[in-house]
C-alpha cells in the first residue's frame, strides 16, 4: 500500500534553447503508507522541482505520478486540484499564514473550504494546536507569534484536512538551530501520531537521520544516502 509512486520522472527547463537545463533525469520513488522520507539536495539540484511535481503543482516532461494508486500524470486540472486539497499537505520554509486571522482560524478555514462543519473544524484545530503545545496561542494572529510558533501553526494547517501525504520544503530552514530542533520534533510527533506519510526536504543531516529513510537528489536522480 503506497501513498506515492514516482516513475521515471524527467523534467527540463528551456528545452532546445542555449540555456536548457535537464533537472530530473529519471527519478523513481515509492513511499509506503506511514513512511517519512528525508530529501537531501544541494541548492539547485532540483528539490523544489521534484516537490512541485509530487505535489501536482507542476507536470513532468515524461514519467508518472501515482498518488494513492491513482495515476495523476495526465489528470485534468480540476482532478489535480481536488487531489491536492484532499490528499496533500504542504509546508514551506516560510509559514504563509493569513495575517488577519488567528492561529485557530488559519487551521479552521481550510477545513470549512472542504465542507467540514465549523464545530468539527474548530475541535480539530484545537486538538492539533494542543499536540504542538500551542493551546494558549489559539487566539493570536501570526504577527503575535514567534517564528517557531508560526511554523508549528503552519504544520497544523497542513494537517487540517487529514492529508495522506505531507510535502515539506525546508520546514525549519528559517529558524535558528535550537528552535529548529524543537519545531522539527513537534512536526515528527504530529506526523507519527497521525500515521502520516511525508517527504521532507532539508539541508540538516541530523534532522534527516531521524526520518525513516534518507534520499539524496544528485545529478537528476534519487539515491539512498
Ligand atoms: P532546488 O530547489 O534544489 O534549489 P530547483 O528545482 O528550484 O532546485 O531548480 C533546479 C534547477 O532548475 C536550477 O538550476 C534552477 O535555476 C532551474 N530552474 C528552476 N525553475 C526554473 C524555471 N521555471 N525556468 C528555468 N529554470 C528553472
Ligand atoms: P520557495 O520554495 O521558492 O521559497 P515558498 O516557500 O515561498 O517558495 O512557497 C511558495 C510556493 O508555493 C511556490 O513555489 C509555489 O509554486 C507554491 N504554490 C503555488 N500554488 C500553490 C498551491 N495552491 N498550494 C501550495 N503551494 C503552492
TrEMBL record:
CDD domains: ABC_MJ0796_LolCDE_FtsE. Residues 4-225 form the ABC transporter domain. Pfam families: ABC_tran. It comes from the Bacteria. GO terms for cellular component: membrane protein complex; plasma membrane. One of its GO terms (molecular function) is ATP binding. GO terms for biological process: lipoprotein localization to outer membrane; protein localization to outer membrane. Keywords: ATP-binding, Cell inner membrane, Cell membrane, Lipoprotein, Membrane, Nucleotide-binding, Transport. Signal peptide: none annotated. Belongs to the ABC transporter superfamily. Macrolide exporter (TC 3.A.1.122) family. This is Lipoprotein-releasing system ATP-binding protein. It comes from Rhodobacter viridis.
Amino acid at each position: 500500500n503506497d501513498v506515492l509512486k514516482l516513475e521515471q520522472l524527467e523534467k527540463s527547463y528551456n528545452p532546445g534553447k542555449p540555456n536548457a537545463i535537464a533537472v530530473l533525469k529519471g527519478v523513481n520513488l515509492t513511499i509506503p503508507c506511514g513512511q517519512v522520507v528525508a530529501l537531501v539536495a544541494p541548492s539547485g539540484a532540483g528539490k523544489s522541482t521534484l516537490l512541485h511535481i509530487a505535489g501536482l503543482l507542476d507536470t513532468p516532461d515524461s514519467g508518472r505520478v501515482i498518488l494513492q494508486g491513482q495515476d495523476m500524470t495526465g489528470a485534468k486540472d480540476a482532478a489535480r486540484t481536488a487531489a491536492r486539497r484532499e490528499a496533500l499537505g504542504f509546508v514551506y520554509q516560510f509559514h504563509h499564514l493569513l495575517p488577519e486571522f488567528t492561529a485557530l482560524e488559519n487551521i479552521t478555514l481550510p477545513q470549512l473550504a472542504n465542507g467540514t462543519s465549523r464545530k468539527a473544524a474548530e475541535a480539530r484545530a484545537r486538538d492539533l494546536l494542543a499536540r504542538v503545545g500551542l493551546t494558549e496561542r489559539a487566539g493570536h494572529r501570526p504577527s503575535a507569534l514567534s517564528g517557531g510558533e508560526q511554523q508549528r501553526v503552519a504544520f497544523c494547517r497542513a494537517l487540517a484536512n487529514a492529508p495522506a501525504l505531507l510535502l515539506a520544503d525546508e520546514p525549519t530552514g528559517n529558524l535558528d538551530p535550537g528552535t529548529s530542533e524543537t519545531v522539527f520534533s513537534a512536526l515528527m510527533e504530529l506526523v507519527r501520531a497521525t500515521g502520516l506519510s511525508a517527504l521532507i526536504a532539508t539541508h540538516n543531516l541530523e534532522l534527516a537521520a531521524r526520518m525513516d529513510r534518507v534520499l539524496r537528489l544528485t545529478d537528476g536522480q534519487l539515491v539512498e544516502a
